[in-house]
């Protein structure tokens, strides 16, 4: 017994090792295409393909006599990773005709069995077949070469069996009629054929097969789609005999369903000879139905007629369970061959007897087989179409890499730039491959989305369970379409380069259908059969660009984000938006996600922009939230780490109130790019003909987004919340050992995998548009800590009150060592908040749609300022405003610090203090702040002309500090246009304290689209003791107002290695094209560059000029700087530069 147990265990061990070895060794070390010359052909149908010597020579094949065929045609690849698959390109057995000289030459040809895009699956129990049409391609491809070394694959002679006595003279044949013409919802893989409506209520479809067995039962299987709100029937008549009425159900009253399937299978006896005359009659003239397909299964006599091969099978034998069968085929001559073509690549040839006009042979019929009787001289064959020569490639020889980028050839230069950036910044190993290369080695050159997955599966299997060797990221570098085969006319735009998409089988529902790139990340054995429960093994993202210019600009944005050199507290802020209505469903979701985020990442400064908390304006054209919209767009322009939206939306933007529109997106010129998380319907429906708002955010070359976790279809709120919560769980996490941040792609992968057990397809409609290997630029390596308040250790609970002068000190510490970083020098941003409030929404849409909702929030800071950090330490002071709420409760500080020299930043939070009450000893004063106003530039003079979107700037100063809290009635900082109260804007959040000062600062506020003509601005500001000051300025909006440069200088000057060029102009916050030219003393142009710039809240452009890059030597140089505004207006400025190298 013990010995048997040992043998059993050893057997298990052997099998386990064998399986592990085989998993990694399923793949060839090199592709067949890695050497020699190759040529690609295609076929449009399944059957014996004939290629003549002359055709082979015309392809460019130098030695047609040695030509060999490789591949497996056009059947759609299996999606479940349990089924047998072909690795690389298997050789196909080929028949060669030889002339009288017994050599292959002119007049000769080759024959081989080729597979087109339609495959059939037999069902023995019902004597039937089911067809599958390749949803990615209309053709099947093969590869030819005459240079391959070794012996060619031979045709195998089939085993010869004794006559069984079980004579077979007929076979089960099949036919399908399917004309893919329409996709009624622009989603899913199902395309429909003939349309039935008031213009045409019936169709007659005729086929004329030969040798039909008239008295044997046939089957017609029919599938239709119905788009009517009322029931109807489709009457089915064959050869004037009514078969059945197929019931077409009315659409359900559920929203988002646009069609219903109707399917029927009917038996009949084809008693009218060799003709099937099918008539379909639709009963509802006021609506529409479609024919999807019909299949015809019927018996035919085994007759080999002249001019065409006879294709047949042994399905009838399997039904009769006969182990051997004698096939008896009527044939007019015996100059034929009988082949077994069951295998994609093998051919078995049978010897046969010919007597009295019949061919006969015996074969084993214990499994399904397909045969063909072919006359190589007189039959017509499947035509091969020459696709061209194929360059050598070898994806099978790829090393184990962290990332794969699949790109159309037209985007390769941009894809390689992106790969180089990841190699440089992230130490990732990256392979860049073209989609055609992937098809060639993983789907026989035929377009098939599963080929992308097969490539990743190869790399995954070769890692043999070693996580460090497994691929981690896949980028699909190209747009996509639900119409993978480009059936519809408006999908064939010139120069649109796309990659394939995975589409759901369900195609009539906006909710249940989906396109998902998750499919390409399912690499485990047995995966691919149930996407709602399968788990992703890698992170995947799509960059939906459709031309080379887009590809280049998106890569520019990603690399700029990865380089992470724009250090400021925008990287420590996130905004959460929530739509109104729907009984507060969206605001509840947003608040739940927001609160989870705050709990997980307390250092993050979160802004809650809930629609119903703002005043709604109702006009004749609809309802709007202008104040909310302005605040939101300003946040985007100034920069935030993340935008997270819950609510209604679509491909054109967000919400009925048009809080975000595609026009807004097109006009974004923000350099500080957020991640956009949009739990809304269809916002990033990249596979549609129209360019979605989400795509525009990513592809906008001037700004928009660094990436989006967004939706491609209609989604459901509760499930959106679940995914959003799962996403924030890891989005900003950092590995405490390696300090490597979680990338956006991995965060989304983790979120989706955590929901896999819910069997909910909603998550499949979320997609990452962008680079999955990019992490959010959230400070991670260092933390800002508060050391003391008013001289007391921060660990001791302290209390501050109204009009107190508060002195604080703090440090920047290294996360790993917990020590102060003595080399950290830069600035720290300190934002101080009063106690948390319970706010109530306004119920703008009424108590039923938008009942009052209470939520916790700290809406306005009591102080926001910057201080200098020296050797890792800082000190600062501020005055607590008189307008705080006087009850006692916990305050909060949000801290951010940056060292631009070392490109390091840090964040932190502190809440161990109480705020409330008032300082009774505060010195009172009655003077309001000192104010200086101008537009665009300090050179502004009252009454000047400006552009229609000027930057308003107010410099303010007061010894008591500036009141920005906004909790006192009428004590806000405001600006009003032309004495109209409706134009009044609260500017509290636009105020920035000067460095190391709480007594002075600047308000920056961008106006937009002002009407031309004379205008006046009224500005009011209050100090901490509620003393006001007002100031006014006048100006003229002139649409012809030109850009102007006021000054230009260089420092250091003389320059050794670099010099900074500084140019003052009158277009802050506006896009400006800058061109710089450097000339020598003789006027010879030595160097030039150009750049698109936006100077945030500044009228100066700073350009870092590298002397060595320009190859300048000692001497004087003339620098000319050209600025061009968005209207094409130009201004020049010159400066002299002296170079003195050491």
Choose one word for the global shape: elongated
* Rg (CA only): 37 Å
Helix count, per DSSP?
13
Kindly report how far apart the N and C termini lie. Answer: 88 Å
Number of strands: 73
Largest sheet: 8 strands, mixed
What is the averaged pLDDT score?
92
Low-confidence stretches: 1-21
| Fraction of helical residues | 10-25%
Notes on the protein architecture:
By secondary structure, the protein is mostly beta strands. It folds into 6 domains: 31-169 and 302-389, no CATH class; 173-299, Jelly Rolls, CATH 2.60.120; 567-769, Rossmann fold; 782-917, Macroglobulin (MG2) domain (Immunoglobulin-like); 930-1037, Immunoglobulin-like, CATH 2.60.40; 1045-1139, Immunoglobulins (Immunoglobulin-like, Sandwich). Helices cover 14% and strands 36% of the residues. It contains 13 helices and 73 strands. Strands 45, 46, 48, 49, 52, 53, 55 and 56 form an 8-stranded mixed sheet that branches. A 6-stranded mixed sheet has the order 35-34-38-42-43-44, with helices on both faces. A hairpin with a 5-residue loop joins strand 69 (1072-1079) and strand 70 (1085-1093). The longest helix has 23 residues, at 2-24.
How do the helices and strands line up, and which of them pair or pack?
Elements: H1 2-24, E1 38-43, E2 47-52, H2 53-59, E3 68-73, E4 91-92, E5 95-96, E6 109-114, E7 118-123, E8 128-133, E9 140-145, E10 156-157, E11 167-168, E12 170-177, E13 195-196, E14 202-207, E15 218-226, E16 232-238, E17 241-248, E18 260-268, E19 276-282, E20 289-301, E21 303-304, E22 310-313, H3 315-320, E23 324-331, E24 337-340, E25 348-350, E26 353-355, E27 358-364, E28 370-374, E29 385-390, E30 403-407, H4 412-426, E31 430-434, H5 435-442, H6 450-462, E32 473-476, E33 539-542, H7 548-563, E34 573-578, H8 585-600, E35 605-610, E36 617-619, E37 622-624, H9 626-638, E38 642-646, E39 649-650, E40 653-654, E41 660-661, H10 662-667, E42 675-679, H11 693-699, E43 707-711, H12 717-731, H13 744-754, E44 766-769, E45 782-789, E46 792-793, E47 798-802, E48 805-814, E49 826-833, E50 837-840, E51 854-857, E52 861-869, E53 873-879, E54 889-890, E55 892-899, E56 904-910, E57 913-918, E58 930-935, E59 945-946, E60 951-957, E61 974-977, E62 985-986, E63 991-993, E64 1000-1006, E65 1013-1022, E66 1028-1037, E67 1045-1051, ...
Parallel strand pairs: 10-25, 11-23, 21-23, 30-31, 30-32, 32-33, 34-35, 34-38, 38-42, 42-43, 45-56, 47-57, 59-66
Antiparallel strand pairs: 1-9, 1-29, 2-6, 3-4, 3-9, 5-6, 7-8, 12-20, 13-20, 14-19, 15-18, 15-20, 16-17, 16-19, 22-28, 23-27, 24-25, 24-28, 26-27, 36-37, 39-40, 40-41, 43-44, 45-46, 45-48, 48-53, 49-52, 49-55, 50-51, 54-57, 55-56, 58-60, 60-64, 61-62, 61-65, 63-64, 65-66, 67-68, 68-71, 69-70, ...
Helix pairs in contact: 4-7, 5-6, 8-12, 12-13
């Amino acid at each position: 017994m013990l010995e048997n147990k040992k043998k059993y265990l050893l057997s298990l061990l052997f099998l386990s090792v064998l399986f592990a070895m085989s998993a990694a060794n399923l793949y060839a070390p090199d592709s067949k295409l890695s050497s020699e010359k190759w040529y690609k052909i295609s076929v449009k149908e399944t059957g014996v393909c004939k290629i003549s010597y002359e055709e082979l020579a015309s392809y460019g094949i130098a030695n047609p006599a040695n030509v060999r065929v490789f591949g497996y045609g056009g059947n759609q690849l299996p999606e479940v990773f349990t089924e047998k698959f072909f690795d690389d390109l298997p050789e196909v057995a080929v028949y060669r005709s030889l002339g009288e000289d017994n050599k292959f030459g002119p007049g000769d040809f080759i024959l081989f069995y080729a597979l087109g895009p339609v495959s059939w699956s037999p069902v023995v129990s019902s004597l039937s077949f089911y067809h599958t049409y390749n949803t990615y391609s209309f053709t099947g491809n093969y590869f030819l070469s005459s240079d391959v070394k070794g012996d060619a694959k031979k045709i195998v002679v089939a085993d010869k069996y004794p006559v069984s006595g079980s004579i077979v003279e007929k076979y089960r044949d099949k036919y399908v009629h399917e004309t893919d013409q329409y996709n009624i919802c622009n989603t899913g893989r199902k395309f429909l054929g003939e349309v039935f409506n008031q213009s045409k209520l019936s169709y007659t479809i005729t086929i004329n097969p030969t040798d039909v067995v008239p008295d044997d039962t046939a089957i017609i299987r029919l599938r239709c789609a119905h788009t009517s709100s009322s029931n109807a029937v489709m009457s089915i008549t064959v050869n004037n005999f009514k078969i059945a009425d197929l019931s077409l159900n009315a659409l359900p009253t559920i929203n988002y369903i646009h069609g219903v399937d109707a399917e029927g299978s009917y038996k009949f006896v084809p008693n009218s000879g060799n003709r099937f005359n099918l008539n379909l009659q639709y009963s509802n003239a006021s609506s529409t139905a479609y024919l999807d397909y019909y299949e015809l299964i019927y018996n035919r006599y085994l007759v080999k007629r002249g001019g065409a091969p006879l294709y047949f099978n042994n399905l009838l034998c399997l039904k009769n369970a006969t182990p051997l069968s004698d096939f008896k085929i009527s044939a007019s001559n015996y100059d034929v061959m009988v082949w077994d073509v069951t295998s994609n690549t093998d051919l078995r040839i049978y010897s046969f007897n010919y007597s009295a006009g019949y061919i006969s042979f015996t074969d084993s019929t214990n499994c399904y087989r397909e045969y063909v009787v072919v006359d190589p001289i007189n039959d017509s064959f499947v035509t091969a179409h020459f696709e061209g020569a194929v360059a050598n490639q070898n994806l099978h020889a790829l090393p184990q890499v962290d990332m794969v980028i699949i790109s159309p050839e037209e985007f390769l230069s941009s894809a390689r730039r992106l790969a180089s950036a990841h190699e440089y910044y992230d130490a990732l190993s990256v392979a860049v491959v073209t989609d055609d290369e992937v098809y060639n080695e993983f789907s026989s050159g035929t377009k098939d989305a599963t080929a992308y997955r097969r490539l990743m599966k190869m790399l995954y299997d070769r890692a043999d369970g070693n996580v460090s060797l497994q691929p981690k990221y896949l980028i699909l570098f190209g747009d996509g379409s639900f119409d993978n085969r480009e059936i519809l006319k408006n999908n064939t735009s010139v120069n649109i380069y796309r990659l394939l998409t995975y589409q759901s089988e369900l195609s009539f529902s906006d909710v249940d259908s989906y396109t998902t790139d998750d499919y390409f990340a399912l690499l485990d054995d047995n995966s691919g059969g149930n996407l709602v429960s399968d788990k992703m093994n890698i992170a995947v993202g799509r960059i939906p660009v459709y031309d080379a210019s887009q590809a280049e600009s998106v890569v520019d944005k990603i690399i700029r984000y990865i380089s992470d050199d724009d250090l400021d507290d925008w990287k420590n802020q996130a905004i959460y938006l929530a739509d109104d209505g729907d009984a507060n469903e969206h605001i509840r979701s947003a608040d739940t996600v927001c609160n989870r985020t705050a709990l997980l990442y307390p250092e993050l400064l979160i802004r809650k922009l809930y629609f119903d908390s703002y005043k709604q304006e109702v006009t004749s054209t609809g309802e709007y939230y202008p104040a909310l919209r302005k605040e939101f767009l300003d946040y985007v322009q100034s920069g935030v780490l993340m935008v997270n939206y819950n609510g209604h939306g679509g491909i054109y933007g967000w919400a009925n109130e048009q809080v975000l529109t595609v026009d807004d997106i097109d006009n974004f010129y923000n350099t500080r790019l957020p991640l956009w998380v949009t739990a809304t319907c269809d916002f990033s429906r990249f596979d549609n003909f129209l360019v979605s708002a989400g795509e525009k955010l990513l592809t906008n070359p001037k700004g928009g987004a660094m990436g989006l976790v967004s939706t491609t279809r209609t989604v459901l709120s509760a499930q959106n919340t679940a995914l959003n919560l799962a996403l924030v769980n890891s989005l900003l996490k950092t590995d405490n050992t390696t300090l490597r941040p979680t990338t956006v792609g991995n965060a989304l992968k983790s979120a989706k995998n955590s929901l896999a057990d819910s069997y909910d397809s909603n998550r499949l409609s979320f997609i990452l548009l962008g680079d999955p290997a990019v992490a959010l630029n959230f400070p991670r390596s260092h933390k800002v800590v508060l050391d003391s308040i008013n001289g007391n250790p921060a660990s001791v609970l302290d209390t501050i009150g109204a009009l107190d002068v508060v002195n604080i000190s703090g440090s920047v510490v290294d996360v790993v060592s917990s020590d102060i970083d003595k080399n950290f020098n830069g600035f720290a941003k300190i934002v101080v908040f009063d106690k948390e409030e319970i706010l109530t929404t306004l119920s703008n849409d009424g108590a039923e749609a938008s009942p009052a909702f209470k939520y916790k929030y700290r809406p306005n800071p009591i102080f926001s300022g910057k201080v200098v950090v020296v050797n890792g330490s800082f000190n600062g002071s501020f005055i607590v405003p008189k307008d705080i709420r006087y009850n006692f409760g916990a305050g909060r500080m949000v801290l951010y610090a940056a060292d631009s020299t070392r490109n390091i930043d840090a964040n932190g939070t502190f809440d161990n203090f109480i705020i409330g009450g008032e300082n009774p000893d505060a010195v009172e004063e009655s003077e309001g702040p000192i104010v200086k106003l101008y537009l665009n530039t300090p050179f502004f003079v009252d009454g000047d002309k400006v552009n229609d979107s000027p930057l308003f700037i107010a410099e303010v100063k007061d010894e008591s500090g500036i009141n920005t809290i906004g909790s006192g009635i009428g004590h806000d900082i405001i600006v009003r246009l032309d004495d109209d109260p409706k134009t009044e804007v609260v500017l509290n959040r636009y105020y920035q304290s000067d460095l190391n000062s709480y007594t002075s600062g600047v308000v920056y506020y961008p106006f937009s689209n002002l009407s031309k003509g004379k205008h006046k601005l009224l500005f009011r500001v209050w100090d901490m003791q509620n003393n006001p000051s007002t100031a006014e300025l006048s100006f003229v909006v002139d649409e012809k107002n030109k850009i102007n440069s006021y000054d230009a200088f260089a420092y250091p000057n003389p320059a050794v290695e670099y010099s900074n060029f500084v140019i003052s102009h009158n277009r802050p916050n506006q896009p400006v094209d800058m061109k710089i030219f450097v000339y020598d003393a003789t006027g010879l142009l030595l160097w030039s560059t150009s750049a698109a710039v936006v100077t945030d809240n500044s009228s100066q452009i700073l350009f870092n000029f590298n002397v060595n890059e320009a190859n300048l030597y000692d001497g004087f140089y003339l620098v000319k700087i050209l600025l061009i505004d968005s209207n094409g207006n130009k201004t020049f400025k010159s400066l002299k530069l002296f170079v003195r190298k050491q």
